[in-house]
Amino acid sequence: MHFSDIVPSLPFILEGVQVTLKFTILSLFCGLPLGIGVALSKLSNSSILRAIATTYVAVFRGTPLLVQLALIYFATPQLIGYSISAFEAGVIAFSLNSAAYTSEIIRAGIEAIDEGQLDAAKVLGIPRRQALFKIIFPQAVRNILPALVNEMINLLKESALVSIIGETDLLRRAQIVASEKFLYFEPLLVAASLYFLMVMVISFFAAKLEKKLAYA
Amino acid sequence: MLNVNNLGKKTTHGEILKPLSFIAQRGEITSIVGPSGSGKTTLLRCLAQLTPITSGNAKFDDQDLRELSHGEIGLVFQSFHLFPHLTLLDNLTIAPISQGVSRRVAEEKAMHLLKQFSLNGKERRHPSQISGGQKQRVAIARALMMDPPLLLFDEPTSALDPEMVNEVGEIISSLQDSKRVIILVTHEIRLAERIADRVLFLDHGILLDNLVSTEFFAKNRSKLSKRAQKFLSNLS
Prior knowledge:
Largest interface: A-B, 20 and 29 residues
Helix content of chain A: over 70%
Number of domains of chain A: 1
Largest sheet of chain B: 6 strands, mixed
Number of strands of chain A: 0
Order of helices and strands of chain B: EEEHEEEHHHEHEHEEHH
Shape of chain B: globular
CATH class of chain A: Mainly Alpha
Largest sheet of chain A: none
CATH architecture of chain A: Orthogonal Bundle
Oligomer: heterodimer
Number of strands of chain B: 10
């Protein structure tokens, strides 16, 4: 073990945490609204919207994320002449991909709510919009929170894929240090520990939030 | 009074309710009884505007039920359908507040009703923290928030322990009021016998009997349809 040899490189690796987090959070913030939109389209009365949403989910769930990432990164310059950065390509690919998964989580969360809830709201004369925002969505959020946290954790871990197209995220930085020092175990173990730590922090806060949202 | 005139309901599964007519008076409890699958709940859902009727009409004091404003029809569901994420107080106030009543006024009324149903001190609890009987009372209180002149009960005892039947009967009786029409759908024949003024017997979507309670439950069953006679004998 030569951990002392990589101590000078630690700040460089740690900077990767910031890149990975920025990447995950951005993808989540773009992917979640898109996922909500896809979920609502799937539940809508319009058959065109439903068809679009279904196709969307099928395509993005049916092809490997790595292939989507490569397509966006390498094909964009060829198709529209814009030289896309690895970071941009990553955020786009991850947002689109995660939206497909979150939309299914959200749809299931909404469908799991007893139809009687809407009946009750209707009989009580609660306007439909308010019924959705005050009765259906709060219950749906509670239903989907655990699955959504799972998706966020997945996103964080899968973000390591961007290292393949050259983004200097946590994994990439560990690899750079490894090849500079000819030491593989130590920097990669540091990277793995940091991923683990980030996931633990997310899980901790998610558990707290879940407790807070529980019905007393 | 509630005037149901040739009300019928057809779906893709067939004719759930054959056109039927009856009158329910203010100040009376009208009970709809019959075997399961007879269309009792569908009739109630039609009256509550939860499902459209396909023929005939239903009027309350000459006004079509579809034109009644929100809150004029109260419905207590078989499985309560309380809002699990809201406190008991919010369960009661959400409807009036959504219709522009001030929170203060709504909460005052809600606290009054909770007290009336012996739920005082529980207003900050959630539905999961109270018993079935208490949920039932919250559901009734919620339906009463807008003072509906037409109050409907769908199988109010079927989700409760048998010993609760009398208590629910007492509560429904206590709501009897000269201004209010109460419709009680139940298969709990003892409940109908105890509190109903008039009994309608429904079977296979057909209204077979419409009698005052004392006649329906008289020892001599000759006034009853064959089906109703059979239904009552099977129960006893």
